[in-house]
Design brief:
The protein is of the alpha/beta class and about 400 residues long. The strands form 3 sheets. An 8-stranded mixed sheet has the order 2-9-8-7-6-3-4-5, with helices on both faces. It has a 4-stranded antiparallel sheet with strand order 10-11-14-13. Strands 1-12 form a two-stranded parallel sheet. The structure holds 4'-deoxy-4'-aminopyridoxal-5'-phosphate. The site of 4'-deoxy-4'-aminopyridoxal-5'-phosphate (PMP) has 14 residues, from helix 4.
Amino acid sequence: MSHPFLSDAAVGFLPSPVRDVWELSMQPGMVSLAGGNPDLRLSDTGWMAEAAARAITDQGDEVLQYGSGTGFAALREAVVEVMSAEGVSASTDSIQVTAGSQLALDLITKLLFARGDTILAEGPTYVGALGVFGGAGVRVEHVEMDDDGLQPDALRETIDRLAGQGRRPRALYTIPNFHNPTGVSLAAGRRAEIVDICRAAGIPIIEDNPYGLLSFGEYDVPSLHSLDPELVIYLGSFSKILAPGLRVGWACAPTWLRRPLQLASESAVICASVLSQELARSFVAGGRWRDTVSAAAAEYARRAEALNGTLRPLLPAGAELTTPAGGFFSWLTLPEGWSSAGLLDHAVDEQVVFVPGASFYADDDGERQFRLAYSLENPLRLDEGARRLGRALASYGSA
Ligand code: PMP
């Protein structure tokens, strides 16, 4: 889409594939495995209306006013508490509150990259990150992952290959826990190696961790940030553990990034919604948040099992399905020669939708793959969705 009034940058922004499939998923009777939305019923938001009314009545001068550019002080303290549950020790000074972690990613991209620069990211990666990088004219080089996450050898080879072309990546973007879209986590044993490789190559890391607390069992792996707080920028969010509509996320920034990030954020939005920040603060201060999040994670675990447990025996020979240990997603790779976009037509006939894999790559990969989101439907519907997908696979395979 070009127009004489539009700049070159305007063509870099792409429509969200999840939103494209959204229309289909709204059709009556459809089982949607498309959107990665949290189920708000699991967030226990019943207290929120009263808390909002109370905040406006008692602290209206604060919560309806412009607020601090770095974030509401009491919320930054609450973020430090959430991060400690995520296994990261951080100081309040390091926290920049943003309107969702999406904005943090956008601002950091502006601060680290010029148009034409290169970023490394897992292949596949988060579509919303691809949107940010595309809009900023940043070239994405995918690094291969396997069932243990990003592969250190592939990272090394990619950096060397790019060096041969005179290109030094300006950052690595990674989602080490319960990755979107694959559901895979980075093995504990690979973490220090990945940080070491990046440090040696002079490449900062953007560690995006919106799903870290939604683990299905014991989960005790070091964050990349804890391995090198001056190299790793950490992104967190209340979207998956409380409510994405509040638009409250954060970056935990190395010292060199704090001031530029604050100024960039002030220039973009002045401050994040103070009322939303107060509600996120109340969620943490209420003290029950850990139980709420654990109960939500246990329900997401049941949903993952309902979908993947039913689907697995229905898969054709040669197909591979990931086994997530947390988060919202699993990822299916179809046999050689199959197409997930082609399968989607059969799936829609069976009244089930998913997001085809090509959307999660900046290059031409992902043709045989697709993402399954189990976060929003209940286990019975997911079981039914898996059966429908099984029928779609059978009809596509015999067509
Ligand atoms: N990173 C990842 C990996 C995500 O999945 C999402 C949301 N889908 C975001 C960032 C953005 O989250 P927020 O709502 O905090 O902007």
